[in-house]
Amino acid sequence: MSEHEAVLQVEDLTVSFPTEDGLVRAVRGVSYELRRGEVLGIVGESGSGKSVTSMAVMGLLPASARIGGSVRFRGQELIGVPDKRMRALRGGRIAMVFQDPMTSLNPVYPVGDQIAEAVRAHNDVSAAQARERAVELLALMQIPRPRERARDYPHQFSGGMRQRVVIATAMANSPDVIIADEPTTALDVTVQAQVLRALETARAATDAAMVLITHDLGVVAGAADRVLVMYAGRPVELGGVDDIYYTPRMPYTLGLLGSLPRLDDGRRGERLTPIAGSPPSLLDLPPGCPFAPRCPMRQAICETTEPEPVATSEPGHLAACHFSADLEGKRPEDVFVPSSDDPADHAADHAADDAAAGGAP
Ligand code: SF4
């Protein structure tokens, strides 16, 4: 496989769950491709479908889930493959890092044994060689005194260190893809930075492709090459990290940016412009754009027609918004208002401005 070929291809992935109250449409048409060494950040609020998308990729959804579309790993279709084959891929060619490291670590075994076991599961090496590799991996993850600490149990490590042990385990088999689902969410900011550095070390050492799933656009800023923003189960914006941060073309992305504290020169201490309201129920999606009830830019068409992701003026940058071109040059504070103000008033102002300027687009 050449470095330019996609190692992971997700195409029009859909996932729904039948419930007593009806069908929950958790993922509605996600597509992306990942090449070796590339990092894709998937960003969205809880319930946006970002984690369900990756659970589908890893074959970890419950049997009741209805899955459509295609997930190809090195050209091989994964949807519908037997559990045994998926188990062999997981932990081997596709490694996972979850929010809670204790999901992956066994509390009753020393961490060195657990990493060594992962090494031996997929490599024909002796127990002594596997233990040596475990110590090397702990050292690479900047665990102090790695030979000694390899004998310690998970509870003897801090939360951030435990997560680095999980990343060391994920690296044990030089995976082709690392999927990290909210790996820094439970950690404070300094420890978050250490875990992100550990993930970058793992990616660089293995040249794996990485999917970094987070609710925090700030987390992917320095870590991702491309960013996929999800809302109500749909991809609403996809682009290079600079496209997403400097020229967002979907109001939801702009709103997420406005919710981040600014630390750059000249903007430090600026007032945040959070997005009012909450995401829609996936059981009962409104017709039209699912972001419309929260969007200060909404107009009549938004209430009836859901926008498809379409190319913007920048190559590789897609946005799902009827008025994405209107966002050019806009800052969050130009579109979103402080939470004490009513977005509906702002939408009315926007419509009035358009009318004054010669009619809505
Ligand atoms: S399509 Fe309409 S409601 Fe949806 S994000 Fe764009 S302007 Fe807002």
Structure explained in plain terms:
- The chain is of the alpha/beta class.
- The protein folds into two domains: about 5-225, Rossmann fold; about 230-355, Rossmann fold (3-Layer(aba) Sandwich), CATH 3.40.50.300.
- It is built from twelve helices and twelve strands.
- It is globular and about 70 Å long.
- Bound molecules: iron/sulfur cluster.
How would you summarize what this structure contains?
Residues 343-353 have a biased composition (Basic and acidic residues). With 361 residues, this protein is α/β, with parallel strands linked by helices. It is built from twelve helices and twelve strands.
What labels would you give this structure?
Rossmann fold, ATP binding, 361 residues, 2 domains, 32% helix, disordered C terminus, eight-stranded mixed beta sheet, binds iron/sulfur cluster, 12 strands, alpha/beta, four-stranded antiparallel beta sheet, single chain, AAA+_ATPase
Question: Are any ligands bound, and if so which?
Answer: iron/sulfur cluster
Shape: globular
Summing up helix and strand content along with how strands pair, one would put the structural category as: alpha/beta
Q: DSSP strand (E) fraction?
A: 15-25%
Annotation field: number of helices:
12
Indicate the CATH architecture of the largest domain: 3-Layer(aba) Sandwich
**Mean pLDDT, rounded to whole units?**
89
| Spatial sequence of strands, sheet with the most strands | 6-7-8-3-9-10-12-11
H and E string: EEEHEEHEHHHHEHEHEEHHEEHH
CATH class of the largest domain: Alpha Beta
User: For the report, how would you describe the main beta sheet?
Assistant: 8 strands, mixed
